[in-house]
Design brief:
1 helix; mainly beta; 15 strands; Glycolipid-binding domain-containing protein; 5% helix
Length: 203
Amino acid sequence: MPRGRYSLHDLHDHTPLGDEHFQCAPGPSGWRYLSRTTTPSGDHLGSVDLTLDELGRPIRLELHAASWQVRGAALEGVTWVRTDPTGTHATEGNVRAHAFTGTSPAFLVATARLLRLTPDSPATRVRLVAFTDPVLAPRTVDQSWALVNSEAHATDNGPLTVDEYQVSALDTGEQHTVHLAGDVVLSAPGIELEDLESPPSSF
């Protein structure tokens, strides 16, 4: 079960946004990721609880940030309920999308797991519902994912396969690179892996 810590940074000026302390593991249903986020000063910021089924679909998502809460799942596309900090107002949403995304590295692993690309696969389009910080506002985004390289690296625990993805935002044409090893993000825009206590799990 990988445990570790990611540091999160602003994409534009690289201002530190805080840390995400995580643990994740394959399980009977598929894969589960749990994390809590903290501010740069160490104060509690939010949490992520994501469970995927064997096909990589989100069967349970629970997000907390700034007292806002989102619960969601893959249901007729994706469906979610967003609750305000007072707990008195809840709004439900549904979009014909494939999965969810957001600032957590968990969503990069989840999207890669859902698409199951190979280096021979063409670039694949995916529609996601993004929950944006700090109030978890939902926004539908279209991306294109391509696995451009898959390379095995020797480690003390045996070979570690690192996958390099090129991700494109279809509305702006902006492209970025994501490096994954199993269920751990090695690097991505705004994300750095700072600590890892055990090797990544392979799917």
